[in-house]
Amino acid sequence: MASILVTGASRGIGRATCVSLGRAGHRVFATMRDPSRAPELSAIARAESLPIVVSAMDVDSDDSVRRGVGDIIAEHGPVDVLVNNAGIERRGSVEELALGEFRAVMETNYFGAIRCMQAVLPSMRTRGSGCIINITSVAGRISASPLGPYSASKFALEAISEALAQEVKGLGIRIAIVQPGIINTDMSNAITTEADRSLYPHSRRFAGMFTASLKTPTGPELVGDTIRRIIESDSPRFRTPVGPDAEPFLAWRASMTDEQWVDWGAADDESWYAAVERDFGLDARKTESRSVG
Fold this sequence. Notes:
With about 290 residues, the chain is of the alpha/beta class. Helix content is about 50%, strand content about 15%.
């Protein structure tokens, strides 16, 4: 069984991944900024006697990552697998969103992942084995307003993952990317709520599209189980889309020229809604609020 470090384990995909791995017998080090604010994972681990250790680690902090990974290795031995899941979402138009919001999402989603990779790579390189799984998104290959800030961070993580895979394959270290579609998490549910009043229509449109998609929700357990299978498999596959809409979304974007993609996002409301309904069967015109699942 592997020794696996998971970041952003307090909820959603991170928590589901830890539970799936723990139930399979893997030793899991579940890290999060403040374990006291997310007791659910510890409760599950106790109730089911799962080999999950919860600890504090803030991926935005050099010192916290260095100390967190160092303590795990010192106390429990080397980390076989790193799952970079910690992430935040910011949305809005490029004109209107504060620059600090762009910095915040890059700090966590991109630089946070790099911090963690740099922390585990020396021991993996010394041992000549290891696996790093970076959780990106279909938004790491498809950029659409109002998710520009989030997509930028995930595009960046995809790019650095490609470079790292070339650097470490010959050292026996495997890099993999997992690309979830619209998954029923707090983050996705937050997008169903229209952002503050904007000069641009895209936040309202995406709120409707996410609301429509989440009427038939895909739980984060699907992503967690997929991550477990990747860890337990010797498959060389680099990218794995997850969720019933992930591959269709990617294929849809790939079917368009760049100019067609820009035209789709720039279309008037009625044309945009009609295209989403035609291509995906989603009535994005309805934006009733949802409770967080």
